[in-house]
Amino acid sequence: MNRTRLTATDIVAPPVAPDRLAEYRRFGYISDQTISASVVRAARQWGSRPAIIEGGHQLTYQELLEVVERAAAWLGGVGVGPGDVVCWQTPNWWEAHVLGLAVWHAGAVSCPIAPFYREHELRQVIEQVRPAAVVTAETFRGFAHAEAFDDLLGGAGLADVARVVLRGTRSGWSPFDAVVSHGSRQQSADVAADDPCLILFTSGTTSGAKAAAHSSRSLLAETRQLAGAWGLSWEDVAYMAAPLQHITGVLNAMTIPLQVGASAVLADRWEADVAVADIMRHRVTYSAGATVFLQELTDAARAARVHLPLRMFACGGAAVPRAVMERSEEQGIPAARVYGMTELPTVTVMNRAHPFDLRAETDGAIAPGCRSGSSGRMASRWPRAARANCWCADRSRCSATSILTPTGRPSTTRDGSPPGMSVSSTAPASSRSPGGSRTSSTAAARSSPPATSKTCSSSTRRCATQP
Q1: Segment Disordered: which positions (predicted)?
Q2: 66, 196, 414, 420: which sits with the fewest CB atoms below 10 Å from its CB?
């Protein structure tokens, strides 16, 4: 089978000065921890704590480890190992969460695919990563996912790829129960922190799906930074209706809970009334999503005459009108903007301790590990940047300060993913200038050691003084 097997040497990135790398280590921005060992670590520290809640199903961290080890053993039995790519396109079901973690536990590279991608985008993803295994639902929201994968894998010459189907049956596919019900269990794989662990695709200004590759070092640096900025711990509970296949879902429902022992409540679709009920029932303390999520959640809570227990709602992907944040604040939902992209998830971050005016009018404090610079194209150097080329529809104006303020930004899609962003692991993408002429912008963003990520467009951002 002609499939992809990735290592750190497969993704070219410029070198980083030893003193900068030492600085990142000294301040705790990066470590040698790997994502493959995260479930073991979480089970050891918080074994009896709830890890995943979805519908009527709940797993503790110890129970999660057991099914993850069995699923990883199954993957190993069908030939999936370190460096192999596993594609999964699923709703936010607990089984998907388990298999996503099992991919990492086996040392393989997780390639989550947005659930709204159809044949056109799926074909591009499959042909680029040439997976060793795929996971999907039989059908969801009227689309026959498993059938589509069969057709596309056959067309790509990957007819013998291992397949797992969730909540359904199909000839040639292994049901989830068979993957986790056998007696074999696998220890976490021994992989390097700089080896790729995650490939995320995003649609941009061209018709092609573009990919960003994260390593354990970059993904866990981002995870620690967010968890620390928001003050999250084992006492917290996340609510996630944004897809697990989006960086928002990966961080807030998978890696952050594993890092701090929090619980993740999953929803396979966004329904504001259901979200209010779930948040109240499970005493959810933090969530993240697009502006429309915040607006609808506020309206639903107001209609239900309840004050939600949320301590944080992170909002990004589009402009967040002050009026929306004022109404959410009145309803007891402290919201804060974040600004980032798939390959660099949080360029800025705030929490509820920041004054409301800063949360309502700015994108927040520039995250640790980056120095502010001069007005112009935004160039960033971070411990958390993925190894990829990127283009993002934003422009910055910075002073020698550390709060970023947007004065314009593209709108967002309902699932929370920002449009107008292209990511490519092979070639730079193109963008359009305000006058409509095409300009080219290239970025070499590296997991760790990090490099530089550049953005350009008609949108402008301004820095202000951090409190």
Answers
A1: 402-467
A2: 414
Q: Please count the other Cβ atoms lying within 10 Å of the Cβ belonging to residue 14.
A: 10
CA distance 338 to 222: 13
* Angle between helix 272-282 and helix 291-304 axes, rounded to 10 deg: 70
Is 283 a domain residue? yes
Q: List the CATH number of the domain containing 91.
A: 3.40.50.980
Please count the CA atoms within 13 angstroms of the CA of 248 that sit on its side-chain side. Answer: 27
The answer to the question of residue 210 being in a domain is no
How many independent structural domains does the chain possess? Answer: 2
Q: Are residues 144 and 242 in the same domain?
A: no
The reply to whether 203 falls in a domain is: no
Buried b (16+ CB within 10 A) or exposed e, 103-112: bbbbbbbbbb
Q: How far apart are CA 94 and CA 112, in angstroms?
A: 15
164: containing domain: 34-191
Name, in order, each residue with C-beta under 8 angstroms of 210's C-beta and a sequence gap of 6 or more.
Answer: 201, 202, 203, 204, 422, 423, 424, 425, 429
Q: Please choose, from the candidates 325, 313, 330, 332, the residue with its C-alpha nearest in 3D space to the C-alpha of residue 416.
A: 313
**Confidence (pTM):** 0.81
Structure tokens at 399: 């002073």
Q: What is the pLDDT along the chain (467 residues), one digit of tens a residue?
A: 677 777 766 665 556 678 887 888 888 888 889 999 999 999 999 999 999 999 999 999 999 999 999 999 999 999 999 999 999 999 999 999 999 999 999 999 999 999 999 999 999 999 999 999 999 999 999 999 999 999 999 999 999 999 999 999 999 999 999 999 988 999 999 999 989 999 999 865 556 778 889 999 989 999 999 999 999 999 999 999 999 999 999 999 999 999 999 999 999 999 999 999 999 999 999 999 999 999 999 999 999 999 999 999 998 777 788 999 999 999 989 998 888 888 788 888 888 888 888 888 888 788 777 666 666 665 656 555 554 433 233 333 333 344 555 444 444 333 433 333 222 222 222 332 323 322 222 222 222 333 333 332 233 344 333 33
Residue 26: inside a domain: no
Same structural domain for residues 241 and 140?
no
As a 3-state breakdown, the chain gives helix, strand, coil percent values, each rounded to 5, of 30, 25, 45
- 8 Å CB contact between 230 and 259: no
CB atoms within 10 A of CB 160: 12
Contact 265, 313 (CB under 8 A): no
Residue that the structure tokens 């709060």 belong to: 403
* Statement to judge: residues 98 and 48 lie in one domain: yes
Same domain? For 185 and 236 the reply is: no
Compute the distance between CA of residue 464 and CA of residue 255 in angstroms, rounded to an integer. 31
